[in-house]
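Table S2 (text version). Query chain:
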Amino acid sequence: MTGKPLDLPAQPYTGEKARLTRAYDYLILVLALFLFIGSFHLHVALTVGDWDFWQDWKDRQWWPLITSLMMITFPAAVQAVLWPNFRLPLGATLCISCLLIGTWITRFFAYHMWNYFPINEVLPATMLPSALVLDAVLMLSNSLTVTSIFGGMAFALLFYPTNWPIFGMFHVPLEYGGAQLTVADLFGFQYIRAGTPEYLRLIERGTLRTYGQYATPLSAFCSALLCTLMYPLWWYLGTLFATTKYIKKI
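Corresponding structure-token output:
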């Protein structure tokens, strides 16, 4: 008997097959989540590095510039997938939350419990307020251009004010050994790290100090300008890697 095969409707799994299928889906979801946490954490560790790791490196010049510029990358790429395809305005918040989970696991267990650094010395910064604003701008505007300009600028400009209540106490001046330094600098001298002796130099030494000591506003607005350019670049990268392409059979 010849002819076209019958188009039978797909039968849903029941019983043991359904339970194993759900368990397999949950396992894949958890593994994908940890893979994303690890990849974003590795990206930040390789690009931001010590500027957002050690307390005495959280300065007024490079910390507001580099941190927000490098952290807007993954949120832009994930937003390019979740918003146009699923209308979920939580790409940036999801990325920053995953990053904070991985960062806290590393800082607490690897550097506090294992290497005995005080948790205040390796306290991570937060960008959750910036991520919430970036998601809100994308949801309200539904425009890549508007989100790139206003959301990217807000992402960078909100970084320093939202982190200052956390880290401001470590920039209080004090006198130690006949010299004036901050609490963060005292951490750097008391808990010496391995590798290159960066703790021996002034972290904030640079050309921005010539502009009347106003290093932070200049760094923040420079980061805001660069974030408006970095956001659409990684949006298109996220769209590119999330696009399925097929090769026609010859």
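Notes on Table S2: The first strand starts at residue 173 and ends at 176. Residues 41 and 200 are 27 Å apart (CA to CA).
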